[in-house]
Amino acid sequence: MTLTSANVGPVRDASVSRYTAGRLSPIRRVADLRRLRDEQFDVLVIGGGVTGTGAALDAASRGLKVALVEARDLAAGTSSRSSKLIHGGLRYLEQLELHLVHEALTERGLLTSRLAPHLVRPVPILVPLPAASPPGRVWQRGYYGLGVAAYDVFAGLFGTGRGMPLHRHLSRAGARRMFPSLRADKIVGAIRYFDGQVDDARLVVNLARTAASLGAAVVTSARVTGFLREAREVVGVKVRDLEAPDSPEFEVRARTVVAATGVWSDDLSQMLSDVGVRPGLRVRASKGVHLVVPRSAITGEAGLILRTPTSVLFVIPWGGHWIIGTTDTDWHLDRSHPAASARDISYLLDQVNTVLERPLTIDDIEGVYAGLRPLLSGEADSTSKLSREHAVVEPMLGLLLVAGGKYTTYRVMAADVIDRAVRRLGGPARPSRTDQLPLLGADGYAAAWRDRLDIARRHGVTAGVMEHLLERYGTLTVHLLAMIEADPALATPLAGAPEYLTAEVAYAALAEGALHLDDVLTRRTRISIETAHRGSETAAHAARVMGEALGWDKAVQEREIEHYLARVEAERQSQKMPDDLTADAARIGVPDVRGLSADRGAEDLLEIDL
Ligand SMILES: Cc1cc2nc3c(=O)[nH]c(=O)nc-3n(C[C@H](O)[C@H](O)[C@H](O)COP(=O)(O)OP(=O)(O)OC[C@H]3O[C@@H](n4cnc5c(N)ncnc54)[C@H](O)[C@@H]3O)c2cc1C
Question: Closest residue (by CA) to atom 31 of ligand 1?
Answer without folding.
Answer: 49
